[in-house]
Amino acid sequence: MKDVELKEVDQAKQLMTRENNGCVKVTVPENTGAKYGLSKDELIQSAGTTGWVRTRWALLVLFWLGWVGMLAGAIVIIVQAPRCKPIPEMNWWNEGLLYKISDVSAFSDNGLKGVEEKLDYLSQMKVKGLVLGPIHTVQADQPDTLNLTSVKSEVGTENELESLLEQAHKKGISIVLNLTPNYEKPSGWFKNATAVAEKIREACAYWLTKGFDGIFLSDLKDIAISHYWPSIQVIFNQTDNTKKVALMGSVTGLPVDEVYLLLNRSGVDLLLTELADPAESGGRQAQAIQKLYSGHLQTSLGWSLRGRSLGSPAAPARLFHTLLFTLPGTPVFSAGDEIGLKAGEKLQTMWDLENPVEATNATAKTRQEERIAVRDFFKALSDLRGKERSLLHGEYVSLYSSATSLAFLRLWDQSERFITAVNWGNDSVTMKLTNSDLPAEAQVRLSTDAANLAVDHKVSVEKLELGPKQAVLLSYPYPG
């Protein structure tokens, strides 16, 4: 009996051994004689029974019914979903703002080299194209000295101009040359556009072969009635560039009816029209915008300010930034507009903003902070316009106008909608905005009145309160 008991104890010790860490390891014999589940033959036999066959068929039918149902649902959703409108064809000058540097020497002490050094700054402003010059050689009121294919020595050389073009293209900025012949005098065409039309035609062909992206002509009415005009136009239609080159022009002081006819007659790619004179009625401005918009593609409409009115008390800079960036067409600004420079102020002021002002000069410090805030507002609007389809190429709907105020809607298909409201008067105004697309409230995106119209806050659209010399940009989602 003792031998048997010892063997049993030894076997137990084999099954249970103590590990170094104090744990007990149990070894389970492999052949214990236990049986788990069904064997292969038993499984095959069970699978062939009537119950399991019916179950498998039922699951298979349910699977295919579910699959067909999901497919049908997807088809119904696709068929019933609203169709997205095709994106209209746009050119490079419709994708952002144009920036005019009329006086290259005033813009930079280094002339054309200095403009090249400021390309990073222009990129930050989201500039899509520069309208440069005029920079050709001519003596005021002396057509015999006109040479449209030369660069005046005060601003640089032709090699420096081509270098500027190359570097600008690398940053996605196009360059348009202003070839207005007699640019130093009020009569840009020597009172006889026909006399210099042939030189204009030759200069257009010359500079376009150099890779420039377009030509700009001031006082377009004078040259557009010349019999030379069709021969100038054909140059732009025959270029081999993969990127479209633009024939641009501007008019000043013309009634809207004449501007309308000139757009039809001249066939220019972009006609720059002055707008936003504080002395004009908002109602007349609304009519002018509507007439030009309804009769022409907005890709051919350009908007600028009359003279240097941006920084004047009658026309706060941010108010007109809001207006020009949200109109249907291309906003065109002159150098210095982004900080609200007044007439007669030096462009060097823009670059002085990067230098800190002494704390003891409180007035200068406050002025600098104000101009930096205006520039930040300009950048925010420029960035918004470049991203939002409703602002890029959306429809324009007039909502409200009075003697001193204006409001309109921009909308595109299923994209977010935008409402622009400006009041350049000396009194507050309550705008009653009505349209089938409008909600009861909209969100403030940008505002010149942070106290009453704070960004991201919701405001009433039915009765929009706007203080004197204030502007606001509102948005709301596609209503579905």
Structure overview:
The chain is of the alpha/beta class and 480 residues long. It folds into 2 domains: 295 residues, Glycosidases (TIM Barrel); 81 residues, Immunoglobulin-like, CATH 2.60.40. The chain is 39% helix and 21% strand. It contains 16 helices and 20 strands. The strands form 5 sheets. The protein has an 8-stranded parallel barrel with strand order 3-4-7-8-9-10-11-12, surrounded by 4 helices. α5 runs parallel beside α7 and α8 runs parallel beside α10. The longest helix has 31 residues. The radius of gyration is 36 Å and the shape is globular. The N terminus is likely disordered. One of its GO terms (biological process) is L-alanine import across plasma membrane. Keywords: Membrane, Transmembrane, Transmembrane helix. This is Glycosyl hydrolase family 13 catalytic domain-containing protein. One of its GO terms (molecular function) is L-leucine transmembrane transporter activity. It holds the Pfam family SLC3A2_N.
In short:
It comes from Phoxinus phoxinus. Helices cover 39% and strands 21% of the residues.
- The CATH homologous superfamily of the largest domain: Glycosidases
Total domain modules: 2
Mean pLDDT: 86
* CATH architecture verdict of the largest domain: Alpha-Beta Barrel
Tell me the radius of gyration: 36 Å
Helices and strands, with pairings:
Blueprint: H1 2-15, E1 16-18, E2 24-26, H2 40-47, H3 50-80, E3 97-101, H4 104-107, H5 111-117, H6 119-124, E4 127-132, E5 137-139, E6 142-147, H7 158-170, E7 174-178, H8 193-209, E8 214-217, H9 220-224, H10 229-237, E9 246-251, H11 256-266, E10 270-275, H12 282-295, E11 301-305, H13 317-326, E12 330-334, H14 348-352, H15 362-387, H16 389-393, E13 395-401, E14 405-411, E15 417-423, E16 429-431, E17 441-447, E18 458-460, E19 464-466, E20 470-476
Parallel strand pairs: 3-4, 3-12, 4-7, 7-8, 8-9, 9-10, 10-11, 11-12
Antiparallel strand pairs: 1-2, 5-6, 13-14, 14-15, 15-20, 16-19, 17-18, 17-20
Helix pairs in contact: 5-7, 8-10, 11-12, 13-15
